[in-house]
Amino acid sequence: RAKAASSVAPVEEELAVSTPDLMHLRRVVEEKDGGPAWTHMMDRTLPTFRYQAWKREPQNGPPQYRSSTIFEDASPDVVRDFFWDDDFRISNTWDDMLLEHETLEECAKTGTMVVRWVRKFPFFCSDREYVIGRRIWASGKTYYCVTKSVPRPSVPRSSKPRRVDLYYSSWCIRPVESRNGDGAMTACEVLLFHHEDMGIPWSIAKLGVQQGMWGCVKRIEPGLRAYQTARAAGVPISKCAAMAHANTKFVADELTASENNTEAGSTSNNAQAEKPKHWTGNLPKVFVIGSVVALACTFDKGLLTKALVFGTARRFAGPGRR
């Protein structure tokens, strides 16, 4: 449960999520962040939404994932609130891994929050804890939503749940033209950028995510439609969703000019990562599946997602085990 938090607005530089985070997200959205090229992974279309996904491998750090989800008949405002609404994540169970959430800090002026999540893992793993800073910027009807892990020594660590130290999951939510051909901007695109330190060999992580991704993604759309129905019926929004309304307005052209003036940046992510050898190739299936389970239960850093665990096990078990 969220606890009372201070609403006193600190200066911009003291906020958990600040303007440089917005500038970074905009560069990633525009594919101008200097990182490796994106490799296409998936393209799925259903009657009311389309999903595409890409990945890339920086020289230093875990694999990064980019996705585009286009929801028909959805407004950016409601989609923004939907992803920010931790209460609805739990009550609707569209995000069935979220067990607990609480607000640790909030700034009523900018909408910046620090929240603590506890996420459920499969039966053979301990749960995971996140301490996340998050904030939304708005340019017209386009929203830039940053969520990332932030250090908070004041929040004590425990062995269970285990803390995730590297986490980045941010969105650009914007109106787009409907695919029904009438030219109306009644669809909404969500560009998601995600990476975290899973604490396991990246070759295993990539296999698992690719195998389990679609099963997790297709739960989101029914949750969004239920959220739309509740809002249309006048159900009051939660405190978390209300904080999404306290976003920071900015003018895109002015920020672009500011970025151009400070654009010297690091090029440390430009090099393509050396691809790790697929050491799993000649190992017995039972060993690989057992290793995934063991890694999930023993590594202290990072989040081994449900997609990774079950996707990797399914990949190596073969059709007879599905």
From TrEMBL:
Show the stretches that span the lipid bilayer. Answer: none
Which GO cellular component term is one of those annotated?
cytoplasm
Specify the START domain's residue ranges: 36-229
GO molecular function term, any single one: lipid binding
Signal sequence residues:
none
Q: Which InterPro entries match?
A: START-like_dom_sf (IPR023393), START_lipid-bd_dom (IPR002913), START_lipid_transfer (IPR051213)
Q: Where in the cell is it found?
A: Nucleus
Q: What is its main location?
A: nucleus
Q: Which PANTHER family does this UniProt record tie to the protein? A: PHOSPHATIDYLCHOLINE TRANSFER PROTEIN (PTHR19308)
The name under which this protein is listed is START domain-containing protein
Q: What is the organism of origin for this protein?
A: Aegilops tauschii subsp. strangulata (Goatgrass)
